[in-house]
Design goal:
By secondary structure, this protein is an alpha/beta fold. The protein is about 25% helix and about 25% strand. It is built from nine helices and 15 strands. Bound molecules: zinc ion (ZN).
């Protein structure tokens, strides 16, 4: 079922400036954390008590007084678009704090075991990798409390990459794509152990993302957010210019 306008916070976290999205149903307070990859203290302080520096962007209340007039936020699930370390390295902090299940596509389970080693290449230290509690499976809609997210399997950046669609009543839908699609670009396909492949990535985007409404807001894993319609018209790798240029994947 579609919901009303969602409350979404963006936290741009860690040395790779990865976007963690915190999604709340303002009617119930039910909250899902998507890609809680780093700076978990900042995320937790804001969700729990509106303390600390807060998000980099929000569609929700900006101070405690406004939030106090709404249902209290309750984290009901942790969900990941994929298992690169900048997206999943600090999930253990969030699991420890909230005690809820963490969802990941099974094709990224192996990749998840490598996050410490991958981070070390950047000189970064991570806790022992989290193990997914639940398989995030495609072509079904998950009910996380009152938040319904439809899951698409969109491999090509990693084998288990998924995109999560939130349908909104009387407003633009939102899709959380991780590193599949960026504003004016696409995810890398050359990251070790990830199973990256450009043709697969292009097919994922054409099959699952382009059919969405043009107005759908695309919450990317890095860089600016964008919309499906804008990327379809202008994206040089997978959009109209690439089709005209005869690029592979079409
Ligand atoms: Zn990635």
């Amino acid at each position: 079922m579609a919901m009303g306008e969602p409350w979404i916070d963006h936290f741009v976290v860690g040395p790779l400036q990865m976007r963690c999205s915190v999604l709340t149903d303002p009617a119930t307070g039910d909250t899902v954390i998507i890609d809680g990859g780093d700076e978990t203290g900042r995320i937790i302080d804001w969700i729990d008590g509106f303390e600390g520096p807060g998000p980099d962007w929000t569609s929700g209340p900006k101070n405690k007084a406004t939030a106090d007039s709404m249902p209290k936020r309750k984290v009901v699930a942790l969900v990941n678009t994929h298992a690169h370390f900048d997206h999943s390295g600090f999930i253990p902090d969030l699991k420890a704090r909230y005690g809820v299940d963490w969802y990941l596509h099974p094709d990224d389970f192996y990749l998840q075991t490598l996050v410490q080693a991958s981070a070390r290449k950047y000189g970064l230290r991570l806790p022992e990798p989290a193990v997914a509690d639940q398989e995030l499976l495609p072509d079904r809609t998950y009910e996380f409390g009152s938040i319904n997210l439809e899951v698409f399997h969109t491999p090509g950046h990693s084998l288990g990459s998924c995109s999560l669609l939130l349908r909104v009543e009387n407003g633009a839908d939102h899709v959380f794509v991780g590193d599949v699609l960026f504003a004016g670009s696409v995810g890398r396909t050359d990251i070790p152990n990830s199973g990256g492949d450009f043709e697969m990535l292009a097919r994922s985007i054409h099959t699952h993302l382009w059919p969405l409404e043009d107005s759908t807001v695309v919450h990317t894993g890095h860089g600016p957010i964008t919309t499906i319609g804008y990327e379809k018209r202008t994206n040089p790798f997978v959009g109209e210019p690439a089709r005209r240029g005869g690029m592979v994947g079409f």
